[in-house]
Amino acid sequence: MSSKNDQEDQEITHRHSAPYVSGFPLKILIFFLERVPGLSSYFYWNAGMKSLRYRNFNEEMTVMPLPLPKEVFGVEDPKTINGLEIFNQRNKTLNQAPENQRFLCARDYTEAYTSKKFTPLQVCEKLIDKINHSCSEACDPPLHGMYQYNKDDILAQAEASTSRYNNGQSLGPLDGVPVAVKDEIDVTGYETRVGTSFFNRGNPASNDAFLVKKLRDQGAIIIGKTNMHEIGFDITTNNPNTHTSRNPYNINHYCGGSSGGSACVVASGLCPIAIGCDGGGSIRIPSSFCGIYGLKTTCGRISSKGKFALSSSVGVAGPMTACVDDLALAYYVMSGKDPEDPKTFHQPSPTLHDLYLTDDLSDLKIGIFSAWNKQVTDPAITPALDNFINEFKLRGAEFIEIEIPELEDARVAHLITIGSEHCAVIDGYKKHSHLLNLPNRANIATLSNVNYSDYIKSQQVRTRIMRNISVVFSGVDLILTPTCAINAPQIYPRALKYGEINTLVTADGTRFAQLANFTGIPAVTVPAGYNDKNLPIGLQFMAKWYDEATLLRVAKVSEEIFESERRRPAEKYWLGNLL
């Protein structure tokens, strides 16, 4: 293992530069990129994506990052109980934020209903007005977090929930709680458009995704579909098809992506829980940019049935929430085995053990790869990270310097893998591909240069990287990094009509996120501060396969550390006055 000084002198992952392009020049670029032989190949080479092609790897391929049995052994905890009982036994959610800065959580809703202060129907009537406002010019500019919603459907669900409360038949801690779902997941009656102008047009889903059904079984009110970056293929949710979602903390900045709408609706207070999907950071990046909690689950932990198959081997669904209790609650409800999704068969039972054991962390060893963590561009990120390290040390956690080998190979292999999986989907809609936003047409043209050698060697690299991660976790329980190397990027007005290509922003935003997707391990992002533009800062913890319980525990610790400093968006963009 190299010394710390040696690490600080090396570039852990490369920043491949390319010009920023938007507006009419972007149209010109696409014209030539799709027609001039060799031009797309140059962009492919410039991104470093040929770096694996002519190398030899001895490993077998891993096409789905499910852990070996030895990695799962011991994760099943003898203290496993029905996780919902934890919430039933908990008297209240710890919340140290000033009253005028508090975010509403699921418990606030259910307590208002059981006390007869409000009914789900009354809340949803107010909520519909708030959604309409958030998507209208009256919001100036609109937030555009919600994309599809149906007033009659919301009210019908609210009436059913109200009836249950009136009859003393509440279904549990989610009954009557508004939940939004990313436009990548099937919800009965809604078209799963995946941020495009043509996917499933005129073909609404006839069934809920498995995870949506599990939420409904607990009484959650599904309020509609959230906006997303078209086909989930970047990190801003700049989407000329569906409008660009804006960051409630600074409306001249992006909310992140590709699950940007989900982050926007939670951060602005429209609902306490939203569901996102994450193939390269798409839950964690917008959660970080919008100052909320986001959990990227283990590959195979939550069923993919009813989730659009954009990035089958790297993409998962997970919760995005205003508080950690809701993160744990939504995760627990959605997790578990699905008879129609073989990836879920071999997981240990989901557990929430030790969620509230936050005072003494002497049993935790947390890995820090200092040279990697220093690869940030916003100077406010490192002090926030250092502060959390000190706070965790005060509670007894041990920090250990680690090294994660071959991260640049992992970056390239992940990009080839997710790009191949996205392009395979688009190939099925070839006659409509000209309707894609211009940046995605550039992505498809560039990724057409992936060949069989690139893909196969990427899966061999995955085997190697998973082995490297397994070795790291033999010595630590968690890995701590910034969530992103940047904070929310600025929105340039010229980019709103046609989109934009900003490869440095994409690379910096995904730098710390891709590893968890490529290897299948879980990761959580927690809010940890703000920069001088009032933009939130997020930190990320990664854990071994299926150990979401430990991630939720340290997220709870993080909430206790930061909650007194946490603040809501400005009043104009705070829409959470629902109770």
UniProtKB/TrEMBL annotation:
SUPFAM superfamilies: Amidase signature (AS) enzymes (SSF75304). It holds the Pfam family Amidase. InterPro entries: Amidase, Amidase_CS, Amidase_dom, AS_sf. It comes from the Eukaryota. Residues 137-552 form the Amidase domain. One of its GO terms (molecular function) is catalytic activity. Belongs to the amidase family. This is Amidase signature enzyme. It comes from Gigaspora margarita.
